[in-house]
Design goal:
This protein is an alpha+beta fold. The chain is built from eight helices and ten strands. The protein has one domain: Beta-lactamase, CATH 3.40.710.10. GO terms for molecular function: beta-lactamase activity.
């Protein structure tokens, strides 16, 4: 086990003991809307995990089974982006290093590279595609380039015991494959994004690169659907709000982690849902519940 050192980005279990008092944000926000929505979903058989913390003070604003390990689909590629950002300092793995896609990397689902003619792209462009569209093909090419073992080692070094990128992106998962692309706990994920915002993951430059890639994200279908952003152009903020988020979508899985800053406060949040996606009504209820949490977060920061 790697011992934590100053600036290493390793998780400290005792950091919250040194945080100051919460200030600036409205004390009247009790997240009742979100609690009610998540409670209703849980009663109807949805597995729910959620957590939100004040970005400045670390104060826990609400939590629901935030220690539970949940499937998080594409959110696990954030761990890949961290490893890529750390390696950009290497001579043979710079931002402009060209990587080729191969038939073994091919996969459907999210992303646009599979629809483009370019057979090769620079490392930094592949990372941007993952941040912007959750590009599955770009993720597989970068996983092949850096290796899952390296991503896992970095994850362990950061002290994330309940969050992991488990596999390549696959169109179908067989008995010999990991059952999920990634898993994570809301507690781990809120810590990770808070540390990224503070420049504490690997180092300030690497954290900034990852935040920059994630700021391109266009999926505002879940929690962030409550914030009123233009999905295709919100990197510079709007009405005093600034968002960085990453979502994960799979059959019966909806998950989101993000940072929302506003005029009065900033929050880090994570919400994951696992449900029987047997009817459109079930899926829409999950998305409504996630947006209800988003409304509480918006009220807190704005």
């Amino acid at each position: 086990m790697v011992k934590p050192t100053q600036g290493s980005g390793r998780r400290s279990r005792h950091a919250s003991a040194h945080l100051g008092k919460h200030g600036g944000a409205p004390a009247s926000v009790n997240f009742g809307r979100g609690f009610q929505a998540l409670g209703d979903l849980a009663v109807n058989g949805v597995q729910v995990s959620a957590r939100a913390t004040d970005l400045v003070t670390g104060r826990v604003l609400f939590s629901v089974d935030d220690h539970v390990v949940m499937p998080t689909a594409g959110i696990g590629t954030v761990l890949l982006l961290i490893e890529v950002a750390a390696r950009l300092r290497e001579a043979d793995f710079g931002a402009y290093a060209i990587l080729d896609r191969t038939p073994l990397d091919s996969v459907g689902g999210s992303g646009i590279w599979q629809h483009l003619q370019a057979p090769s792209l620079p490392v930094a462009d592949l990372a941007a595609l993952i941040g912007a569209t959750g590009d599955n093909l770009a993720a597989n090419v970068l996983i092949r380039a850096v290796g899952l073992d390296a991503v896992r080692a970095r994850t362990e070094q950061l002290g994330l015991s309940r969050t992991a990128l488990l596999d390549l992106v696959r169109d179908e998962r067989g008995p010999d494959h990991a059952p999920q692309l990634s898993v994570g706990s809301a507690k781990d994920l809120t810590w990770l994004f808070t540390a990224l915002a503070r420049g504490e993951i690997v180092d300030a430059a690497a954290s900034e690169r990852v935040i920059g890639w994630l700021s391109l994200g266009t999926d505002l279908s879940m929690v962030a659907g409550a914030f009123g952003f233009d999905p295709l152009a919100h990197r510079q903020g709007d009405h005093g709000l600034l968002l960085v988020n990453k979502t994960g979508t799979d059959a019966g899985v909806r998950s989101e982690v993000g940072i929302l800053r506003g005029p009065r406060a900033g929050v880090t949040y994570a919400v994951s849902m696992s449900f029987a996606d047997t009817a459109l009504s079930a899926r829409l209820a999950v998305l409504d519940g996630m947006r209800a949490v988003g409304m509480d977060l918006l009220e807190y920061v704005h």
